[in-house]
Design brief:
Layout: H1 3-40, E1 57-60, E2 66-69, E3 93-96, H2 98-108, H3 112-128, H4 136-147, E4 156-157, E5 163-164, H5 205-211, H6 226-238, H7 246-256, H8 260-276
Antiparallel strand pairs: 1-2, 1-3, 4-5
Helix pairs in contact: 1-8, 2-3, 3-4, 3-6, 4-8, 6-7
Length: about 280
C-alpha cells in the first residue's frame, strides 16, 4: 500500500468534511444574522429582512375593531424541551398587508396566499412571543419542503387557504415511518386506522390535538387551512426556545422534524427567500 497516498486521501476526506460542516453553519448563521440586522435597521428599511422580516399589517382584536401598525416579518441540535400549552385562541391576530404580500410573492415565487399566511403568523407571534424571533421566511422554508406551499402534486391553495386537492401523507403504519395508530377517528386525515400527516404544513393529527390554532379567526382550528397551520407551526417552533441564534434556530427546526438534513434544507430555502425579497 502507498502510505503517503493513503494519508493524502485521509487528509482530503477530513478537509472536505470540515468544509461541508462550515458551509452548513454559515447557512444557518445567515438566517439568524440577517434577522438581527432587520431589527437594527429603521422600520421603513426592514420591509423584507430575513427571519424577523417586517411588513405592513393590520391587527384585529375582535370582529369590529382594527388598528394599523407598522410591522412586517454541523452543530448538534437538541430536541426541544416539553413545550408550554398553546397560546389562547383569544390572542389578537395580525394580517399581512396585501400590497406587501403581492410584491414579496412576486419577488420570491411563493404563492401569495401562502406567503400572506406565513407573514401573518410571524406578525402575530412577534407580539404574542416577542423573544422568539420567528420570521416569515423560516415558515416559508418549511412550507416549501413540506408541500411546496400547498401545491404538492400540481395542486393549489384556494382563496380560503385550503389545498385543492387535499394533501394527505402516507399511513403511519410503521412500514416506512413510525407507527402511529389513529388518534382523530379520521376527522382530519380521512383514515380511521392510522394517522397521516395533513395539510400544507403536514401536521399529524396527534400533534394537532395539542397545537391546533385558529389563524384566520373563523372559530375553527383546521390543519388543512394555511393560516391555521402556519400559526400552529410558529407556536410549535417558538416552544423550542429563541430562534435569534444559530443554535436556537437549528434546535427549533429540528424539533419540527428530527433530521439534520431537514434543518439544512429549510435553512437553504429560508435564505433563498430572504435574498429574493431583498433582505
Amino acid at each position: 500500500m502507498d502510505l503517503d497516498a493513503g494519508r493524502g486521501r485521509s487528509w482530503s476526506s477530513v478537509f472536505a468534511a470540515v468544509l461541508a460542516a462550515l458551509f452548513v453553519g454559515i447557512a444557518v448563521v445567515l438566517v439568524v444574522s440577517a434577522q438581527a440586522a432587520g431589527r437594527e435597521r429603521p422600520l421603513e428599511e426592514r420591509i423584507a429582512a430575513p427571519a424577523a422580516a417586517e411588513i405592513a399589517a393590520t391587527v384585529t382584536t375582535d370582529a369590529t375593531s382594527t388598528a394599523e401598525v407598522s410591522e412586517v416579518p454541523a452543530p448538534d441540535p437538541a430536541p426541544a424541551a416539553a413545550p408550554p400549552a398553546a397560546a389562547p385562541s383569544s390572542a389578537p391576530l395580525f394580517t399581512a398587508d396585501a400590497t406587501w404580500s403581492a410584491r414579496t410573492a412576486a419577488a420570491t415565487g411563493i404563492p401569495e396566499r401562502a406567503l400572506r399566511a406565513y407573514a401573518s403568523a410571524a406578525l402575530t407571534l412577534k407580539v404574542e412571543q416577542p423573544s422568539c424571533g420567528l420570521g416569515w421566511n423560516t415558515l416559508a422554508g418549511i412550507g416549501a419542503i413540506e408541500s411546496a406551499h400547498g401545491t404538492h402534486s400540481g395542486g393549489h391553495l384556494d382563496d380560503a387557504g385550503y389545498p385543492q386537492p387535499v394533501i394527505r401523507g402516507i399511513p403511519l403504519d410503521g412500514s416506512a415511518s413510525a407507527a402511529i395508530a389513529d388518534t382523530d377517528g379520521g376527522r382530519w386525515d380521512g383514515d380511521a386506522t392510522w394517522d397521516r400527516a395533513v395539510g400544507p404544513l403536514q401536521f399529524i393529527p396527534a400533534t394537532w390535538q395539542r397545537w391546533g390554532a385558529d389563524g384566520n379567526g373563523d372559530g375553527v382550528a383546521d390543519p388543512n387551512q394555511i393560516d391555521d397551520a402556519a400559526l400552529a407551526a410558529g407556536r410549535y417552533l417558538c416552544a423550542a426556545g429563541e430562534m435569534t441564534s444559530a443554535s436556537g434556530w437549528r434546535r427549533a427546526i429540528f424539533s419540527y422534524n428530527h433530521l439534520d438534513s431537514y434543518v439544512d434544507d429549510v435553512a437553504a430555502m429560508a435564505n433563498t427567500y430572504a435574498a429574493r425579497a431583498g433582505g
